[in-house]
Amino acid sequence: MNQPASLPLVASLLDAPLPPSGIAWLDAARQENRAAFAIGGLPDTRVEAWKYTALRGLGQRRFTQGDAAAQTRAVEASTLALPGVSGVRLVFVNGAFRADLSAVDSLPAGLSLQPLSQALRGDVEPLRFALSRHYRDIGDAFAQINAASAGDGVVLRVAAHARIDQPVQLVFVGAEAELAWHVRNVIELGEGAELSLVEQHASRGDAAQLATVVSDIELRDGAQLHHVMLQDAAAGTNLIRRSSLRLHARAQAALHVLELGGALVRHDLRAELIGDGARVHTRGVFMPHGRQHIDTQLAIRHQALDTTSTSHWRGVANDRARGVFRGAIVVAPGADGSDANLTNKNLLLSPSAEIDTKPELEIYADEVQAAHGATVGQLDERSLFYLRSRGIPLAEARALLTAAFCRAVLDDLPNVALREHLSTLLVAQLPA
Amino acid sequence: MNSMINDSSSATALRDNADVAEALGRSYSAGFITEIEMTGLPPGLDEGTIRAISAVKHEPEWMTEWRLQAYRHWLTMPKPDWAKLNIDPIDYQAISYYAAPKKQPKSLDEVDPALLETYEKLGVPLHERAALAGVAVDAVFDSVSVGTTFRKQLADAGVLFCSMSEAIREYPEIVQKYLGSVVPTGDNFFAALNSAVFSDGSFVFIPKGVRCPMELSTYFRINAQNTGQFERTLIVAEERAHVSYLEGCTAPKRDENQLHAAVVELVALEGAQIKYSTVQNWYPGDENGVGGIYNFVTKRGDCRGDDSKICWTQVETGSAITWKYPSVVLRGDRSVGEFYSVALTHHFQQADTGTKMIHIGKHTKSKIVSKGISAGRSSNSYRGLVKMEKGAEGARNYTQCDSLLIGKQCGAHTFPYMEVKNPTAIVEHEATTSKISDDQMFYCRARGIPEEDAVSMIVDGFCKQVFRELPMEFAVEAKKLLEVSLEGAVG
Question: Which residues pair with B279 in a beta bridge?
């Protein structure tokens, strides 16, 4: 079959030395994951999870790993500024923590936030569970290389019952140089804790990059998380992310995801509802244009009693772009009282664009309400007619309806200033 | 008038059938074994086996070559493992690829009485008496067709309806033109195997402008032990021709798994319409999951001409494992594909079934209605693909998949794939999964309806949309089948 190591990308990623940690279990896990990557290489489109995302082009490229000049790369303040978000901020440039751009001086009570590179010098035991994982699946290539190579990232903890009022901003900037970088985040909300998180992916310059970001997010009993993910990377960025949430009893997570930029973008978003009464709500929009390829793989597992999930995702593909969406809902045996709902609506704006969508239901319990729906099509003719009959030109009517179509996913975002800003970004992405 | 007689006689047959079922404690009623002298090939598969099958059937050289090519290709293919099925490894050398009743009848009158009795028991009218039923039947027993009724009446209308073996001998130019043109020999693992070793099946050819005067039907029966059944059906409807075709299947109860790998090809030319209905009731294995048929079937229709239409309707209650995706390639402009399916699994049955609608032509339309019912410890998956190619201007698809769960240990899954490359196409998919609601049950119970009857009423209502698409005789049989198959699912 394929000879993984012979692919330029795989060879170049294996070239770089592993980041030394001096922690025996961590070094062992890095070795193990690296060895698995060396054997398995990149998944091809015969691997179900990568059916619609071919890595042939990416596989032919070479990237040097890590950036020696990461501390000196210029990043404008405007890249980091977000309306409705001020206060605590952690910034990473090409995968390395930048103290000068971050704001962690006055952390609110109950919040502990530091870069992984620092955390590894302190008490590492709490990180052991997340960082000693071995990824074995054939589709896990990027998680493997991330686990082997990521030397920095976010370590965030909220103490039990602490309510953090100000949103915490995490910014990942890819800057200028052609290289690969990896970031590993570990986030935990204690019992009854509340946090609002804004995760931002941005770029400076158009250099081709490969970036992998793996985040583990643990929500203890009754914890509440609002999480906004804004991905607005430059056209040269290949960005592969995996966000895994685990929700304990009565925990709640609300996610708003905007996938706007990048060249080849892949996001594996997984939520496991492992405690009774846990709830997860995901809202997202992906808007590939030009020759972008944006792939979102959403998987929600109901594993406990009376768990709820709702997912509403929109896709708009223009030019020669391709949008891929998979929305899988699994209700495990015994997860009675599960209520799962997923919709994915898509618009195709150009004859050369493509949308591939695959909502899935896998149900092993019978006291269950599960439904999904997916559509691919155009704007509603009647709505267009309504607007035109009121004197709005066709092009404008289209633009209005398309903007409304995308904005719908932001409706229940509580941060008004941020919502308005994101809404403007969405509209800017649409064809004039 | 004819149809009234038809209804009452088939109703009688069904009542008889039902009585047998009742007597057997309402389990798998078609599970008996017919004692009849058989001839066949010993188990094993190599080029010799294929030449032997070809020789027994007096096939022309091109056919033998076609089979061998398929076989050589099959040897290079990996076994597919993408379906949500647990399949014990199949030993292809332990299967006998050809079994036939020893006495080959020249006409229906010479058919072995034991055989006729078999079909009588199954409620399939083969004999003159059945003229009343008004359905032309091709009966396939293990590897060979044992009789085709109404040949003359059909021939008068210009319709060719016979077994595949005969067609290869008598209408080689038609067979050669269409065989393998919808499902190529190397299409998939089981289609390649079928192409190499297929023994018989039905052949239907409806010439230009002809509306087939009666329903055509094939009844498949696996009887012999350690055999596999590999039938191949080809239906060609020329310009503006219409045909409705029914297919039924049963097998005896045996402890080992038997393999059934069929290929069905439909070709609809301009303005033609083909309706293909299946009631699949192969032996599903017992309540402990022992035995049962492995049903790996490739069914595909090709709407080659503009304004053509192909409609698949299936009721799947049997088989230990079902792997089946009746598909339509919508090549002609304004062509229509439809798929209606009820799949019921109980005990340890596994089904991975669905459809593919490939839209190539302009303004093509497809509709998919799939109802899955899982009970016991079974697993029931819908897997479907709707593909809108670049040229599918204004194409439209609507898909609805509903699953019903009866019991705590079963699984119901939905895996729809949608690939859209044309901005004017519209694809819609909806799916729900739930159990029979307590409200519905309470309503029925409060009116004195016993629990089991209530379940069967609700299931019947759940499936109504599909049953409506079945020809009358089949709809009654299908409803009965569901009741019997759900036996013991509640309580």
Answer: B248, B315
